[in-house]
Design brief:
globular; 157 residues; alpha/beta; 9 strands; Glutaredoxin
C-alpha cells in the first residue's frame, strides 16, 4: 500500500466534462498542486452518498481556504456515473474522477474485492497530496467511516 512520503504512481483517471471524457495523467494532474484526494467504494452507495461526499461538498470552501488547489473524489466507477453522482450531490467544487478499471486503485494497493456486490472497488480513504507526494494518508478499516471524512482532513491541513 502507498505510504506517506511516497509519490503517487502513474495512472490515468477519467472525468466527464462538458467537452466529453477527459483522461488525466495522474502525475500531471497532481503536479505543482496541493490536493485532497478521497476515495469511496462506489458512487450512489449509502455511506458514500449520505456522509462521505456531502462532507467534502459542505466544507470545500474551508478546505480550499487552507491552500488546497484541488479536491478530488475517486471511485472505481465510470466517468458517466461519477459525473451523474457529482450532479446529484451538487459537487461543483470537486473533481469527480473515475478509475474505471481499478488500475490506479490497484497501483496504490488500496483495492478490495466485494465479490458479486460490485467486484474490485477502492477502500475508503483520504489523502493530502503536495506536488504528487502523499503527505497524509488516512485509510479506513473495513466498514468504518472515521478518519477519511472532510472534518478530519480539514483539521489536518
Amino acid at each position: 500500500m502507498i505510504a506517506q512520503g511516497q509519490r503517487l504512481p502513474e495512472g490515468i483517471l477519467s472525468e466527464l466534462t462538458a467537452d466529453g471524457v477527459v483522461e488525466h495523467q495522474v502525475r500531471e494532474l497532481f503536479a505543482k498542486k496541493k490536493a485532497v484526494l478521497f476515495a469511496v467504494p462506489g458512487a450512489f452507495t449509502p455511506t458514500c452518498s449520505n456522509a462521505h461526499l456531502p462532507g467534502y461538498v459542505a466544507l470545500a470552501d474551508e478546505i480550499k481556504a487552507k491552500g488546497v488547489d484541488m479536491i478530488a473524489c475517486l471511485a472505481v466507477n465510470d466517468a458517466f456515473v461519477m459525473q451523474a453522482w457529482g450532479k446529484d450531490q451538487n459537487a461543483t467544487e470537486l473533481m469527480m474522477l473515475a478509475d474505471g478499471s481499478g488500475a490506479f486503485t490497484k497501483a496504490l494497493g488500496l483495492e478490495f474485492d466485494t465479490g458479486n456486490f460490485g467486484g474490485i472497488r477502492s477502500r475508503r480513504y483520504a489523502m493530502i497530496v503536495d506536488d504528487g507526494v502523499v503527505t497524509l494518508l488516512n485509510v479506513e478499516a473495513p466498514k468504518a467511516f472515521e478518519v477519511s471524512d472532510a472534518r478530519t482532513i480539514l483539521a489536518a491541513l
